[in-house]
Write a structure and sequence with these properties.
Layout: E1 2-9, E2 14-21, E3 28-29, H1 30-36, H2 48-57, H3 60-72, E4 91-96, E5 114-119, E6 123-124, E7 129-130, E8 139-149, H4 158-164, E9 165-176, H5 177-184, H6 190-193, E10 199-207, E11 218-223, E12 226-232, H7 240-247, E13 257-261, E14 277-279, E15 284-289, E16 293-299
Parallel strand pairs: 4-13, 6-10, 7-16
Antiparallel strand pairs: 1-2, 1-10, 2-3, 4-5, 8-9, 8-13, 8-14, 9-10, 11-12, 11-15, 15-16
Helix pairs in contact: 4-7
Length: 300
């Protein structure tokens, strides 16, 4: 099952709604699918964090009932464009290696989970044109896989952190490299990572547990059609559960996200996983992961 968010017409206004689909291509209102599955007391139509918390609390049999209801639904919604599948109050943590890397083939990544924090305002909806705010600056991109939290976690052990994961999505981590280099002298990193609507996020969340994420699952980044990054879940220096457990020191709540990407992917034969990859106005990117889909964006 996949969850997405879109702004759709309501009787009197446009409202943000949580959508779902299973094997089919059409999107359906999550609340309607819950009603058809006979599962009461679902989240409010636009409550993204509430949807993750609700699904995290369900058992496998109830999830299968929702998936069957989605597969049997014939009238999908007309969705022109998807929004970023994250709530306005969510936190996102980007896990990095031992140092801020110019290349990802670092042989000694951090044993402790460290990295950067990102605000929801720094994320952009999938498929959008991203306007690079400083024409004179160098920008670059890294493909990341994000774990979405469905249960609160505070100083969680790895097993508890694994249970807190409700699904996975993608992010194109875009950085103002000039600003990053300037901030490095002060050991700050907020500005370069948090320019408004700079990092595309989505296109949807694949609802799955940590156990359902196959270690062989790959994430790729293409720039103008040419592949620039490829890594598998097994290449990452930390497991998703370890990263979520590490970041739970900052207190994770439903709807928060933890990202891991090419910058901490261990190299393997024939795959150095260069990171970051420079981007400029006019470039088009695609980040792909089979269970999730393709996150696309253009730069202006």
């Amino acid at each position: 099952m996949k969850l997405a968010v879109a702004a759709l017409p309501a009787p009197f206004l446009i409202e943000r709604r949580v959508l779902a689909r299973n094997a089919g291509e059409g999107w359906h209102d999550l609340g309607a699918a819950l009603a058809e599955a006979g599962i009461p007391d679902g989240p409010a139509p636009g409550d993204v964090a509430g949807a993750f918390a609700f699904l995290s609390a369900l058992g496998p049999a109830q999830r299968r009932r929702i998936e069957r209801a989605l597969d049997q639904s014939r009238n999908g919604l007309a969705v022109a464009a998807l929004d970023k599948p994250i709530g306005p109050d969510a936190k996102l943590f980007l896990t990095e290696g031992r140092i801020a890397l110019a290349r990802s083939n670092d042989v000694a990544p951090a044993k402790r989970v460290v990295g950067f924090s990102k605000f929801e305002s720094a994320l952009a909806a999938p498929g959008r044109t991203i306007r690079l705010p400083n024409p004179g600056a160098r920008y670059d991109v890294e493909a990341t896989l994000c774990a979405i939290v469905g249960r609160a976690a505070n100083r969680a052990a790895r097993s508890e952190a694994a249970r807190a994961i409700v699904g996975f999505t993608l992010m194109a981590e875009v950085t103002n490299r000039n600003m990053f280099d300037e901030e490095a002298a002060t050991r700050n990193n907020l500005y370069a990572k948090n320019e408004e609507a700079l990092s595309p996020f989505g296109p949807c969340v694949w609802i799955a547990s940590a156990r359902e994420l196959d270690p062989a699952t790959e994430v790729t980044l293409k720039v103008n059609g040419a592949e620039r990054q490829r890594f598998a879940v097994s290449d990452l220096a930390h497991t998703m559960a370890a990263a979520v457990g590490g970041w739970s020191r900052a207190v994770l709540v439903p709807g928060d996200a933890v990202a891991l990407g090419a910058a901490i992917a261990r190299p393997r034969a024939g795959n150095a996983v260069d990171s970051p990859v420079p981007v400029a106005p006019g470039d088009a990117i695609e980040i792909a992961c089979a269970p999730i889909g393709v996150l696309a964006a253009k730069f202006a």
